[in-house]
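Subject: sequence -> structure tokens, single chain

Hey, anyone have a minute? Need the predicted structure for the following. Not urgent.
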Amino acid sequence: MTSIRKFLILAIVATLILFNFIAALRGYQSSMFEAETLFDNQLLDLSRLVSNLDESRINGEFRLGNNVAFQIWDNDQLVAASFHAPQDLITPLLGGFEYSNFEGYRWRTYTRHDDVRNRWVIVAERTDLRFILAENVVLESISPILVGIPIVGLVIWVVVSFGLSPLTQLSSQLGRKKVGDLSPIELRQTPSELEPVLQSVNGFINRLSLALEREKRFSADAAHELRTPISALKIQLHNLQQELGTKSDAFVDLQQGVERMQHLVEQLLSLYRSTPDQFAAECRSVDLHEITQDVVARYYPMIEAREQSLELEGERCLISGDRFALETLITNLLSNAGKYTHAGGNIRLKISSAESGAQLVVEDDGPGISNEERHRVFDRFYRTGNSGSKATGCGLGLTIVKHIADLHGAHVTVEDSSFGRGVAFRVAFPGAGA
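Reply:
Had a minute. Here:
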């Protein structure tokens, strides 16, 4: 049972029905016994009445009712009988109440001896008619209970729903919360049973808000605070190179280290910018092929410097997303392929669309990624250990790719490249109906 309301209502109604059934059964049995006693007393009074009848005025058409018969016996001779009575003894002359069958019915009989006139009087009443009458009386008393059960069930539904309304309010407020809304939950009236739950929920929301705020503050502060000194450091290195004219390996390594530090800062800032609330605000219909063309155009000089071949296949493909986030995703995939592909290697980007959605594939003919490492390449700061590659990076590029894909409801997989060697990253975006 997954609904508290349904469980409570069914449990209460089931208990009520069981109690009423037992009470009705006991009442029926008791009422039938009382009715049987009442009818037997009436039959006893009827025997006294018959004893006082003048048998000379009783003929074969005499009757006391359609469901009553009587006989008057003097020793072994039938003195008088009613219309329904047979000519034989209805029941043995033993005295008291018995049952007998005649005229196709079962009869309740009473035999008494009239000591004054020295004769036997037998009266009989059809049991089926007396039971019908008794059952009607009993059912008339029980039927209000049976009819009242649905009404009571409705009242229970209303009462239970009213009692659970604070829980419904809590669920409604949690369901209406927008992305990034970490304000505490407040109810108009909080029952004592729900107070610990509300305190726990608000406590969890508060801890989550503080944790997210610390993460945002750290990412934003680290990125912004490091940008300025890194930019100044790059300018000083450029001036120093112009002034000294040095191109030593140590100086080049220093420049590359500064570039790597700047790249790390930009990646951290990108990861901060791609939060769910910012993404929801920027999401709109964009052309995936156009965005990919722009990224390829900006990145092409670095590809050309390594004498690599770069292909872009596909055509106009509209999806719902954030342009900046998608540019970051494509840039990271293209940068990853460029770094790990050898000089003179091949890189291909393919865009396709179907009813199920759009797909972006970035593949190369580099050293590839082993099957054992493919499930870890999206972990933060993880670097593959393939073929001694000298590619530099901070280990956040593919993590950001996975994060951005999740924001778009897309699925990223690592596959074998169609070049025969290397790796392919496939990003499957959902269709309009997904």
